[in-house]
Amino acid sequence: MARMIGAKAFFVAISALFVSSSATFSAPASALSMQTGAITSQPIGHYEFCQQYRSECAAGQRDPGPAKVTEFGWNVVRNINSTINHELTPVTDKELYGKDEHWAYPDTAGDCEDFVLLKRRKLIEHGFSAADLLITVVRKPDGEGHAVLTVRSTDGDYILDNLDGDVKLWTETPYRYLKRQASFHPGRWVSIENGDALMVSSVGK
Predict the structure, then answer these.
(1) Which of 72, 90, 96, 113 is deepest in the core (most CB within 10 A)?
(2) What region, left, alpha or beta, does residue 27 occupy, with left being phi > 0 and alpha being psi -120 to 50 degrees?
(3) For residues 24 and 36, what is the distance between their CA atoms, to the nearest angstrom?
(4) Is 142 helix (H, G, I), strand (E, B) or coil?
(5) Any bridge partners for residue 32, and if so which?
(6) Is 83 helix (H, G, I), strand (E, B) or coil?
(7) Strands in the chain per DSSP E
(8) How confident is the model over 4-48, as pLDDT tens digits?
């Protein structure tokens, strides 16, 4: 009986994060979502990460389409983004590991990819689908590469960024979007076809 009650409580908690009607998942993609293209190269750091955490990059991930996230769910997203941004110290891989590229779950410090990995894991622990939590590679206005976490939803694609305390729609960020994890396979990556087509007018000012 206690196990049944615990399972019911977990279901209620997950239900608070999402509106899970069949109509939600069959709805067309939002115009505020990234348009992904063909399979592209996997970042070397993620490839090496997958060698260590094989179960997190294995095939078999189900993609029912972006979910309708509730206001409670967005509060969870914002809280995790803010908490991790404040708890971790930004440090380059060179300083931390003595190499240019190394993706890992951070303890107290890490590079942008490490922030992303931890946020993704925390959101999965809170009931979000891995198919809606996609590591994304972008280029900053100064030309430097950067990694952010994309949260897919029926309202569009939102960005969790260690350089910004706010969770923003991807078109409201100053980045050029290059590629991201495939929603159908966490070990594969796809190109982003409209990565610089929807930039807001404030970019570059």
Answers:
(1) 113
(2) beta
(3) 20
(4) coil
(5) none
(6) helix
(7) 18-19, 36-40, 68-69, 89-90, 109-110, 133-139, 145-153, 156-161, 164-169, 176-182, 185-192
(8) 444 444 444 455 676 543 333 333 345 689 999 999 999 999 999
d(CA 19, CA 28): 16
Neighbours of 167 (CB within 10 A): 18
**Per-residue pLDDT tens over the stretch 44-82:** 999 999 999 999 999 988 898 998 999 999 999 999 999
List phi, psi (to 5°) of 196. Answer: -130, 20
Q: At what angle do helices 71-87 and 2-17 cross, to 10 degrees?
A: 90
Cβ(122)–Cβ(84) below 8 Å? yes
The dihedral over CA atoms of 43, 61, 88, 79, expressed in degrees to the nearest 10, equals 140
Tokens representing 36 are 């992904």
Domain boundaries in the chain? 77-196
Contact at 8 Å (CB) between 191 and 180?
no
* Fold that domain 77-196 belongs to in CATH: C8orf32 fold (3.10.620)
